[in-house]
Structure prediction request, 405 residues.
Amino acid sequence: MIRPRKLLATVTAAHALNHAFLLAFPPLLVPLMNEFKTDLVGGGAAMTGLYLASGLGALPAGWLADRWGPRRLIHIFLGGASLCLILTSFAPDLKTMSVSILFLGLFCSLYHPSGLSLISKRCVPIGRAFGIHGIGGNLGLAFGPFLVAQLSSMFGWRSALMVLASAGIVLMPLFAWSGDRQERSPEGEIGSRPDIGPNHLSLGLAIACQGLLGFCYRGILTFLPLYFTARHGGLLERMDPISAGGLLTSLSLGIGVAGQYFGGWLSNRTSPERLFSILLLATLPFPFLMAFGEGLPLLACAALFAFFFFAAQPVGNLLIARHSGEAWRSLGFGFSFTASFGFGSFAALAGGWIAEKRSLAALFPAMGSVLALGAVVSLLLVRQTRKGRFPASISSGTPPPLSST
Prediction:
């Protein structure tokens, strides 16, 4: 049993909203382009600002979480991001919208270093807790774009953003009442103690992997709803194309829920470094296959990509916690998500350029090539870990009981 459950539940809900907030805009590309008279490059540039802010803000967020405590930053994220969505819903032009979603990205950047640090310090067993937490993110990824697309089709994109903002406002008091304000690591759970500093080379390789995977993730996720809209192949033909694209994206990403749990379950049973490499290699063929798919084959490839890609996420988070000392924990996650979301943010702009200059299908092999580079770096991490020296507790997969909750 994962403990403490109430804390994990509310943090997981915040994780779902974080991803729903960040992915509210890809399914709105078509209505936004129509209303603001722009193209894919202009829309991609606006989203690059959103994702760049969410990435670059993660590093100072990690520093602040180590000093102010992660709980306080999660409260600021929920309130600030909800306010930004409300302001975006009143944007009169593309410039105003771009500025408001830039601030949305800054508030969203507060979440991951804070939420993951809080879980790593308070929840056992940590691998499964990361898996459950990841499931929340996948639910936000899978159903956020679909719900936004549906609400946009029925009531307009501005009302869709207002509804999304209200969810963040509702969660704020629930998180405040979740209790369990201790923020000390369960002793020995991941083998990281306050007196053990980070393993800099291993941590650097793990962060480099996260940056490359973030680029692949952002490039594919930004344009997948639009790709499904163009290549649904008669699936859901009674729905309008925007809603069909959002639903097919949700169905494929929904498989990532199983992947998150699978990766979290395995992470406490084998070497996480080796497992991480295996999962990335298993993911590798599918971005290339997606370039040629349409209809049901495209849906199957996207679903398999989501399963293996998201199975690697809780394992990657465990690697960051494992190779950083407890005093560096939030900052380590800050570096990780700065690499993932900061470097990854340029994928929206790069993907828009590839789609305009070549084709929408061409961006999937491009993102697959970035994923291949990430797999190579993960193999270097496996080699480095075999050479490195770790305390015996790090290799122990058995979590001790938590003395108090």
Remarks:
- The first helix runs from residue 5 to 22.
- The chain has one domain: 5-174+193-392.
- Residues 185-196, 389-405 have pLDDT under 50 and may be disordered.
- The domain at 5-174+193-392 is CATH 1.20.1250.20 (Growth Hormone; Chain: A;).
